[in-house]
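Quality-control log, excerpt.
Job 1 of 2 completed; input and output follow.
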Amino acid sequence: MAFTEESQTFLIAAYYRELKETFGDRATAAFVHAVRQYGIQRGSRMAQRAIRDGQPLDYVTFCRYGEWEPSREILQAGKGSRTEIAQMSPDYELHVLSCPWYQAFEKYHALEAGDLYCGNLDEAINQGFNGAIPFRTVQTKHTAEFCIFEVRDAGITVQTDLSHRPGVVRGFDYHCAHVFAAFGGVCRGIFGEDAGRALMQRVLDAFGSEFGAEMAAELEKMAEQDFLTA
C-alpha cells in the first residue's frame, strides 16, 4: 500500500471519531481548530518558500507554491479531481466537480467529518499564506452538487502560469504525517498531554489496522519532523 488521499482522509476521519467518542460536545470545536491549525501551518510553509524566492504573496504565487498534487495511485484508479474554471477575471471562480477526498470520506462513512474539514481547510491554508487574499470557500460537495472556490481580483488570465514551482510539492507520506502530528498537537494542547497522546495512539492503531503495521510505523516516524519550517 501507498500513502494517498485515501490514507490522509482515513486519519482525518479517525481523529474526528476518536474526538467524538472521547470528548463529546467539545469534539467539534477541537476538530475544527485542528483543521485550521493544520491548514495555517501548510500555508505558512508555502509563504516561507515564496518569500525566500522573492515572490509576491498573491494568489498566483499561492497556486504555484501549493504542496499538493494528485497521487499516482488515485490517478491510476480514475479517482482524480475534475475541475472547471467558471470565471477567470476579474474574480477567479473554480468549481470542483469530483474529488478523491469526498469519495474517501464517503468510503469511510465520515461525511460529517468531511463537511467540517472541507469547509475550513482551504481558507485556513490561505490564512497561513496571506490572509489578505480575498479567498472564499463558497460551498463544498458536502452541501451542494460541487465545490466552489472564489478569489476576488485574483489577477489571473489565460496566459497566467499556474504550474507548480520545482521542489514545492510534497508526497502523501508527508501530508499524512503532517495531519497526524498537527491534529495530535492540538489534541494534546486542548485536552492535556496524556489524553492527547492516548488519542493519537488510538488513531495510529486504527491506521495500522487499515493500512498495515509498516505504514503505521513509517507514519509515526515521519510525524517527528518539523512541519512549521519550510
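Job 2 of 2 completed; input and output follow.
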Amino acid sequence: MRVAFVSENVSPLVSPGVAETGRQSAHVAQLSAALARRGHDVVVYTRRQDLDAPDRVHADANFDVVHVSAGPAQPSSPDNHLAHMADFARYLRCQWQENPPDVVHAHYWSSGLMAQLAARTLGLTSLQTFHGLGSMKARVKGGSQRQYEHQIRTERVVAKAASRIIATHADEALELARMGTPRTRISVVPNGVDLNLFAPSDRVPSIEARESRMRRIVCVGPLEPRRGLDAVIKAVAVLPDVELIIPGGPPGCELDDYDEAQRLNRLAVEHGVANRVQLVGHVAHAAMPALLRTADVVICTPWYEPFAVLPVEAMACGIPVIAHGVDGHDDAIVDGVTGMLVPHGSPLRLVDCLREIFDHPSVAEGLGASGRDRAVARYSWDQIAIETERAYMRATPNVVGDRHVSAGQH
C-alpha cells in the first residue's frame, strides 16, 4: 500500500524528546519504519525548516521524507504555518495528482487541514491523528478556550472531512465523539514504544547495594506546571530516605534561569527537602532508559498528557509506575497489576502507593514484570503498525490488501 504521511509541523528526522513536537516526530518516524517493515511504501511530507535540507531524503529505516517549501525555511508555530497552507496543499495536490497514494494519513491539526485541501479535491482516502485535541488542552489547562479557538474550529472541520480518525487513547475517542465524529469512524491505536531501547537492565543490584542508598523516584515529562510535580515533592517530604530526580527542561546549566525550575526549587526548600530533590535538566531520549533503570519507582502525574507514552517507557524497562489516571494512562496501566493509578489531587493516595512499593519488594517486582509484559504485548511499534494498517483497510475497503506494492514517487 502506498501511504502518504503529512507532518507539516515537525519532521521525523529531528531528534525525539519529551515535548509534544518531539513525541510527534518520534511517532511519525517509528510508525513509518514499522509500516515499511510490513512492505508498505511510506513517504512523509513535512514543511522545509532548513534551506540546506535536501528535497527528498531516504531514511535508513526505508521510508522517504519530502521537504516541502511553504513559507520561510525556519521553525515556527503551526498557527504561522497556516498562512502558507495554500502553497503546501498545492504541492501535495500536484504530487498526488500524478502519483496518488492509497492512503493519506495526517498528523496534527494543521497537517490535517493541509492534507484535506489536497486529498478531497482528488477523492483520496484520508486519515487523521491529532496528537492532542485543543478542546482537551483548554479544559485541563484552565481559563478561556480563546487561546485554542482556531485549533478547535479547525479540528472539527478536519474530523468531519477525514475518512477515519485514529485516536491515541480512549479519552480522546470520547472527546471526538462529543465533537460529533461518529464512533464508527474512530479507531483507537496508541502510541508505541521502542522496546529495544527501553528494556530492563541485565544488572541486578545486590540487596546490600539497594539498602545502602536512598530509594529513588524519577519523574518524567516536560518541565511544565501541568506535570504535577508539586504533589510528588510534598510526598517526598513525608517519606524518609527517598530522593526525587526530575529530568526535563533546558540543559542543567540553564535551569537557574528557567521559571518552572525556580518554582520547584523554592517548593523543595519550603518543604525541607531541597537536599533530596534534584533537577537534572534535559536528558537525551537515548539516555532516558539508563536513568529510568536507576529508579525504584517512576511517577507520571500530569494534569494532561496527549501522548501517554512516558509511563509505558518506564514499564518497558521493568520499573514500577505510579500515574495519574488521565488520558491514555488509564488505557496503559491496569491498576494494581501493571502499575498504580492515583486520582489527580489525591496526595495521600500517592504516598500510600509509594509506601506499598518501597515496603514490599515483591509488589515492586510484580508490578515491574507485569508492566514489561504489558508494554511488549500492546505497545511494540510492530503491533501499532498492524493496528494502523487495520484502520487503513477499514477506511479503504476497495483497496486491494496486498502490502507488497511496488514503490512509487508520491
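Post-run check on job 2. Residues 20-37 form the longest helix (18 residues).
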